[in-house]
Amino acid sequence: xxxxxxxxxxxxxxxxxxxxxxxxxxxxxxxxxxxxxxxxxxxxxxxxxxxxxxxxxxxxxxxxxxxxxxxxxxxxxxxxxxxxxxxxxxxxxxxxxxxxxxxxxxxxxx
Length: 110
Prior knowledge:
Layout: E1 19-20, E2 30-40, E3 50-58, E4 67-71, H1 74-89, E5 96-103, E6 106-109
Parallel strand pairs: 1-4
Antiparallel strand pairs: 2-3, 2-5, 3-4, 5-6
């Protein structure tokens, strides 16, 4: 008889949860990013056409309370994808420290 695999072995795309916060509320504060998802935005006529959902907790939060923020920033999208590739090459999970900065008219990670 063939072994039946568990769901978590079949998918890498899992739902991200947490309290929703505005990106402006976390600017310039260190956070720990624990995951992200990129999908098509329902607002295709604005921004990059993508919706980025980022799961994180505040770097100084000892309870690691998960939160999420949303953005259409193409800069954030590119930076997060690059970080994911780097971590995957090292067989590491998506878990890293960052600070969201506003640079002119766009957001960027530092």
